[in-house]
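Subject: design request, 329 residues
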């Protein structure tokens, strides 16, 4: 999250987030068995599925022997992840449009007038690729965060973006191969929409084979925002086993994006592959300062949701959601 933060407050927030993640691993063994669930949105006939991810330790990154390996994926290092839920599919326009345009009056009736809404884009942000069942695209990381806030006001459940480590852990689904299903790129078309089979557009979510943990389109279709600042040498700054790592945001660019998209080559869809956001994604935006909400030249970036096992306190949630974006000139 790239926001202008008071340093002390930010350190406090990171500590609270870390404690929440760590404490959830203790609670996991004490609660009734955690399972998958369907999240309904009150007042509308849309819902989405959340998959329970048990947490554990895995090897994050890739080494020189992996085809497509990049320096920012090294060194391979041990990471421990606390339990969480992750959405089985990328967020679709069916849900996202409620936040953008259609749900304003009903949300106000719930007493949450202060939710920020995206400015109406001057372009068709589906880019003609499809809407019903297709992943929502083109939003900034701040936009994605405000969507999570809207979900919280409607459902009472704290949702956020995954950390880079959570995302890779979930994508790998217990594997250590370049893709969750193995090494063979000839099998990629069974699991992913990418450059050679996508016809240069998004596709309905969940139409390919999911990974071993029931998560669809982790490879391809659209890339997905994470919570982290993209730091190329971040892995080299760690030692021993790292618990729930998060690269704290200090700048607007670049933020970490994972998974590859419909316009990418197979090597960019690997579980370890990393990418940072780019100001060029707003190059044709005529606003000064540029929009906090939309990337008109990034029709390949979308959202996948995470819910930590233990919901933070109301104060922690408010602090997390209500940070102000940095203006983008």
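Subject: RE: design request

Done. Sequence follows.
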């Amino acid at each position: 999250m790239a926001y202008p933060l008071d340093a002390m407050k930010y350190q406090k927030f990171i500590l609270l987030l870390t404690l929440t993640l760590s404490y959830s691993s203790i609670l996991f063994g004490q609660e009734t068995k955690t399972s998958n669930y369907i999240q309904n949105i009150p007042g509308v006939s849309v819902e989405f599925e959340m998959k329970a991810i048990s947490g554990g330790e895995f090897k994050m990154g890739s080494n020189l022997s992996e085809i497509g390996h990049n320096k920012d994926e090294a060194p391979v290092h041990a990471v421990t992840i606390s339990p969480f839920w992750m959405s089985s599919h990328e967020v679709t326009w069916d849900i996202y449009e409620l936040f953008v345009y259609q749900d304003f009056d009903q949300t106000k009736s719930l007493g949450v007038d202060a939710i920020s809404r995206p400015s109406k884009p001057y372009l068709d942000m589906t880019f003609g690729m499809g809407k019903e069942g297709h992943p929502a695209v083109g939003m900034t990381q701040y936009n994605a965060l405000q969507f999570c806030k809207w979900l919280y006001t409607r459902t009472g459940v704290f949702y956020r973006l995954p950390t880079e480590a959570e995302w890779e852990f979930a994508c790998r689904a217990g594997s250590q191969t370049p893709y969750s299903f193995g090494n063979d790129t000839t099998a990629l078309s069974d699991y992913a929409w990418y450059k050679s089979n996508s016809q240069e557009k998004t596709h309905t979510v969940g139409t390919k084979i999911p990974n071993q943990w029931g998560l669809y389109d982790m490879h391809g279709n659209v890339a997905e925002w994470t919570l982290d600042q993209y730091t190329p040498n971040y892995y080299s700054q760690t030692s021993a086993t790292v618990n729930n790592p998060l690269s704290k945001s200090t700048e607007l660019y670049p933020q970490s994006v994972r998974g590859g998209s419909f316009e990418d080559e197979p090597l960019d869809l690997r579980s370890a592959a990393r990418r940072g956001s780019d100001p060029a994604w707003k190059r044709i935006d005529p606003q000064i300062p540029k929009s906090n909400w939309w990337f008109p030249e990034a029709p390949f970036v979308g959202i996948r949701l995470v819910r930590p096992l233990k919901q933070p306190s109301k104060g922690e949630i408010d602090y997390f959601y209500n940070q102000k974006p940095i203006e983008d000139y």
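Residues 10 and 248 are 9 Å apart (CA to CA).
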